[in-house]
Amino acid sequence: MAIIGSIIKSLIDLRENLVSETDPEKEQEQVLKNLLKTARDTAFGKHYKFSEILKEKDIKKSFSEKLPFFDYHKMNEEWWHRYHEGEENVSWPGKPPYFALSSGTTGKSSKRIPVTGDMLESIRKAGIKQVSALSNFDLPSDFFEKEIMMLGSSTDLQKEGDHKEGEISGISASNIPFWFRGYYKPGEEISKIDEWDDRVQKIAENAKNWDIGALSGIPSWMELMLKKVIDYHKAENIHEIWPNLQVYASGGVAFEPYEKSFEEIWGRPVQVIDTYLASEGFLAIQNRPGTHSMKLIIDNGVYFEFVPFKPEFIRQDGSLTEDAPAIPLAEVEEEKDYVLLISTVSGAWRYIIGDTIKFTDKEKLEIRITGRTKFFLNVVGSQLSVNKMNDAVKELEEEFNIKIPEFVVAAKRGEDGEYYHFWYLGTKDGVNEEKLARSLDRNLKEANKNYKVARSKALKGVKVFTIEPDLFHEWNAANKKKGGQVKMEKVMKEEKFANWQQFVKKHS
After folding, report:
1. Are 390 and 260 members of one domain?
2. Distances from the Cα of 193 to the Cα of 169, 181, 199, 209, 372, angstroms
3. Does the pLDDT at position 10 exceed 50?
4. Shared-domain flag, residues 168 and 313
5. Fewer CB atoms inside 10 A, N or C side of the chain?
6. pTM score > 0.90 for this model?
7. Any residues with CB less than 8 A from the CB of 73 and at least 6 apart, and which?
8. DSSP per-residue letters across 7-62
9. How far apart are the first and last CA of the chain?
10. 345 and 386: one domain?
11. Which domain holds residue 292?
12. What would the mean pLDDT of 126-143 be, rounded to a whole number?
């Protein structure tokens, strides 16, 4: 019996048992009050009269009526740019010590999202909640003595004037508590290596020196790293290198498209736990086995609102129309897609994070990320969201017994002048493209009535092209988006898709 592990496990179990259930609506209202009180004397708080909102009987209603929606560009152009000009107390007291760089999947240049000291504390508390939730999983005591591989972006943050910049995973890793550093791998020295390939090479070289019990990172890049370690050591699977590996904390995107690929990497079953850490905050954790859903963290410096994900409320660029209705937590319904809005201790207000979610269990506050507002394919009325695309691709995997970890789709006219959906599927398994197209088209018709209607009118059909999965990573690398928090875009506009097609043709 691992003595230290048993003590840690007992403390986690005790903490989880002591945490009492609270009223989610009251928790969220208190979070909103605290946000407004803290920021009322900032330039933003004065402009939107936070002091007056706080006097209202229905604070949530007044808040939603008096503040517009903000996406990154609106928030940055109207407010956050003032931090870079030397101002303090812009949208949150003081000046943020960090800015999280996030080009996301569609942006041409990096966004700079403020990360305040209060947000770092919020992320730390969310991390503790995640660790506490491990008591709900059937893990042995010695698991809590193993090391954790956190595959994020470089922790070698760039100094810019009075703050530092880097991706949120690098910022978080550079602020890990001293007591955790002994468990944290690949360690400070390797984590500071900026070049992804060089960092992964060092991880592979040192892999056998570590006793890894858990992994954390985005699936696409985690898969590449694990394959590199396996190849370097000429092993059959990752458990030959790390025999005590038991948990993988996935994040950033839905894990399901990667399940089949990871099955070849594992030597034995690994508990996959989903997390929702964005550049703007740590929003949800999976706190029980038997589900891919995550529980919203509603008492930790983030106030949530939800806009029904309907075509009439979404502009072509993924932003919301001014008249889009936003509802509080109390009014959401299960299995309906919503655009997520957050207000946070980093001074983001009614902020469109860009993700769409659905509640799978309202009572448990459990959600799934269903896609991105910009990945909503609505050319000729097809109204396809990423979760519908993921589901259709998963059905292809099952039907043809193949692996498709990555895909890209665009709507454009074919040579005959008719509109088609062009799909590029990343797979190493040889399957007839016409058969895949017919099955994909059938799956989408069955899953989405709007798609079915579009197929009977302006949408002529589906064209499928199979390519090597590595081409998706090479595309990211060519666009200076390799490793860290980078996610492959699923839907492209015509101009970018033309560049993608040229890239594939050149590298195939």
Report:
1. no
2. 14, 17, 6, 19, 30
3. no
4. yes
5. N
6. no
7. none
8. HHHHHHHHHHHHPPP--HHHHHHHHHHHHHHHHTTSHHHHHTTHHHHHHSSSHHHH
9. 53
10. no
11. 1-374
12. 83
